[in-house]
Amino acid sequence: MTEVELLSKIYQHTQEGLTPDWFIDEHLHEDQKAEFRVRKAQAVQSIVNLLDTYRAENPHLGITSNNETPTNPTTGTDTESDPA
User: In Å, how far are 36, 64, 73 from 43, measured between CA atoms?
Assistant: First the structure.
């Protein structure tokens, strides 16, 4: 099974409500499981890093991380008290 086929199957299963970890546990050999989980963690970290960079380079868009209070890019106030 190629990496593309594997990712495609995982995507199909997640659309059916199953987690990628379920698929990994059911369909990969033991030696493949650890490698895939490491690669999955690296991919997630790469995405987080890209989002952090994009957010830092584009503060005018008002993009926040999950642990930040969103702010209105025009007024600079938090969006919970300033819905505009």
Answer: 10, 20, 30
Q: Is 36 helix (H, G, I), strand (E, B) or coil?
A: helix
Q: Could you read off the pLDDT of 51-72 as tens digits, one per residue?
A: 888 888 888 877 766 655 555 5
Find the domain containing 57 and state its range.
Answer: 3-61
Evaluate whether 20 touches 14 at the Cβ level (below 8 Å): yes
The pTM for the full model equals 0.47
Q: Number of folded domains in the chain?
A: 1
- Domain membership of residue 74 (yes or no) is no
| Residue 7 per-residue DSSP state | H
In a domain, 27, yes or no: yes
Specify if 69 maps to a domain.
no
d(CA 51, CA 84): 24
